Amino acid sequence: MSVIKEGETIPEGTFKYVPWSDALEDNLVCGIPVELSSNEWKGKKVVIVSVPGAFTPTCHTKHLPPFLEKYEEFKAKGVDVIAVLAANDPFVMSGWARFEGLKDKIIALSDNGAQWSKKIGLDKDLTANGLGIRTNRYASILEDNVVKYIGVETAPGVSVSGADAVLAAL
Amino acid sequence: MPINTINSSEEFKRIINSGKPVVIDFFAAWCNNCRITYPFFEEFSKDAPGVDFWKLDIDDHPDVSKEIDIKSLPTFIFFRSGAKVGEVLGADPAGLHGLIQTAKKATA
């Protein structure tokens, strides 16, 4: 599958995730995964950040945190939804989200088996690294589910899929 | 009374509309916080005669879970005459004790 291009509409996707609630803060409750459909993004400006794995080194320390730090800047540019996406299950995504302090600012979505990312040409076989099939490292800006920006990393590290690159493209 | 499991949404409706104060434990098998809190639920229930105690597995009854809008687990709800009177979220034994005492007072 070739990588989705700017100007194309994303295929429909459903992702499981655990919605944030204050009750989750002290780990005394278990959150319940619910489904989110990309149809809910119609008419909105959405930033998607895709990482190969929750808690894995680059994703955890270099890729995701700047999106949280610069949250107000994203909001100022009219972004309605910021979502971090990975192939991990929704419980792991929820745990990672709480660890990173995302609360209700960034939603952590589970792209089961990287199936949706595969539809847009952005799954990645990391079996050799012990991770299995994962989502590639990329970031995208969607407006009404049309791709306005897509930045796919081709080398280790964070550049075109990072917070600064996305902010510059907004 | 031993704490029985609610087996259908019809049973659920019947139970909460029984006129007696009812406290229900909404749980899931995979939820560790539910497991931690359950022994307290059992223990506190012994001290509240006149209150009915039940548990409901939200994975078995997603329709009830959705109707009551259960968002996190465990959720303990005190019902009276079909209406929600009080609620406690999470592994909070002290809060649960308070809720059950409130339900007990409603039997007077």
Automatic annotation (TrEMBL), chain A:
CDD domains: PRX5_like (cd03013)
Keywords, sorted A to Z: Antioxidant, Oxidoreductase, Peroxidase, Redox-active center
Top-level taxonomic group: Eukaryota
Gene Ontology biological process terms, A to Z: cell redox homeostasis; cellular response to oxidative stress; hydrogen peroxide catabolic process
All residue ranges annotated as the Thioredoxin domain in the record: 4-170
Signal peptide residue numbers: none
Any one GO MF annotation of this record: thioredoxin peroxidase activity
GO cellular component, one term: mitochondrion
PROSITE patterns given in the database record: THIOREDOXIN_2 (PS51352)
InterPro entries the record matches: PRX5-like, Redoxin, Thioredoxin-like_sf, Thioredoxin_domain
Keyword Oxidoreductase: yes
Active site: 59
Chain's role: Thiol-specific peroxidase that catalyzes the reduction of hydrogen peroxide and organic hydroperoxides to water and alcohols, respectively. Plays a role in cell protection against oxidative stress by detoxifying peroxides.
PANTHER family attached to this UniProt entry: PEROXIREDOXIN (PTHR10430), PEROXIREDOXIN-5, MITOCHONDRIAL (PTHR10430:SF16)
Record's subunit section: Homodimer; disulfide-linked, upon oxidation.
Protein family per UniProt: Belongs to the peroxiredoxin family. Prx5 subfamily.
Name recorded for this polypeptide: Putative peroxiredoxin
Species whose genome carries this gene: Coprinellus micaceus
Automatic annotation (TrEMBL), chain B:
S-S bonds: 31-34
GO molecular function: protein-disulfide reductase activity
Pfam families per record: Thioredoxin (PF00085)
Domain of life the protein comes from: Eukaryota
Residues at the site labelled Deprotonates C-terminal active site Cys: 25
PROSITE patterns from the UniProt entry: THIOREDOXIN_2 (PS51352)
Annotated site location: Contributes to redox potential value: 32-33
Keywords associated with the record: Disulfide bond, Redox-active center
Active site: 31 (nucleophile), 34 (nucleophile)
Domain Thioredoxin, residue spans: 1-105
Gene3D superfamilies given in the database record: Glutaredoxin
Family note: Belongs to the thioredoxin family.
Protein name as it appears in the record: Thioredoxin
Upper taxonomic lineage: Eukaryota, Fungi, Dikarya, Basidiomycota, Agaricomycotina
